[in-house]
């Protein structure tokens, strides 16, 4: 018993079949002219017709060189195979339309669809596909099992490129896929970026990859923890990664110290890496000056040190006032001179506001004479000229901790040690 199919005599009443893989994976990225060439040639092949490039160019309003580019493109995509005849002339080839489904799922991949003759050539059998490679076929099956889905044509081509062009060992490919899936990243674009980055860096063995993962993961955890501490849900930029690497690798900070610096951003409207970097850089400068490790908290904070400087100045001023009252009792003349000097000082300030230069000059002269009289009175009564002046511990900064140019005074190290003792005594008094 035979089964017959009626033949359609008019080719315009027939149809052709195009694989879904072609439409979904290859066609979207292809130039429009190339798609026209492919479909038109499939139509001709289905009806067993041949056509020269010149004739096709006229029918499709496409140049002959463009048609040749189209066949080069589709051959690169694995959709067709050009079969050259004797001499391998530029136009002397036939186009064989490859069965994409067979390439995907047939171990042998030996059958193909009908061909379409571009020149004088004829059809021929398909050559062995890369999918006929047993090791590669096994790798593809393992990848599909790990992804729990079949690979698309584009993804298949990418994997083949890793193995054949980039010389990726199958175990490294699988290691990359497992690594990405373990991070919750199953996007093939993400997986591809990771594996290709490894291969470009020469990570072509499992040992090299594992060493890299261990180092990278440590940095990845650092980045993620810092960004979380700043309330940022995005990934850090390359510049932010570079700055964070400096904190840990060059400056020697530990995570708890970095997180402490991050907490300083609570009061600003836009927490950012640069602000934290400023805090950590300042801390490093202080640590170097104090000759301590950057992660070591100073025994006395800068806040306590400032309080101690305030205490020193208040003490010096109080003691100076006590000496002044003593002198007033013994030498009332000095008290009268000081009262006159205060009065002149007020009048001098008013003259400066009124810009009366003549009055200001006269008052300055009186003030200088009173200063001389005061010094003479102190010496004649057995006192030092500076007896009633405040006696600061540091004459360079007058117990402010700041040098003339605004930087830290050299006395800070000494004062910090004193402040530690002062703080302990202060706490003991409260206990």
Can you describe what's shown?
There is one protein chain. 61% of the residues lie in helices and 3% in strands. It is mostly helical. Strands 1-2-3 form a three-stranded antiparallel beta sheet. Helix 6 runs parallel beside helix 8 (170-182), helix 10 (206-229) runs parallel beside helix 12 (255-263) and helix 11 (238-250) runs parallel beside helix 13 (273-290). The longest helix is centred in the last third of the chain and has 29 residues, at 302-330. It is elongated and about 135 Å long. Mean pLDDT is 81; it is low at 1-5, 107-114 and 118-132.
What's the arrangement of strands in the largest beta sheet? 1-2-3
The helix/strand series, from N terminus to C terminus, equals: HHHHEEHEHHHHHHHHHHHH
**What would you call the shape?**
elongated
Number of helices: 17
Q: Quick one: how many beta strands?
A: 3
Which strand-content bin applies to the residues?
under 5%
Helix content: 55-70%
Radius of gyration: 44 Å
- Major sheet characteristics: 3 strands, antiparallel
Overall pLDDT, averaged? Answer: 81
Poorly predicted ranges: 1-5, 107-114, 118-132
Helix/strand class? mainly alpha
Distance between the termini: 112 Å
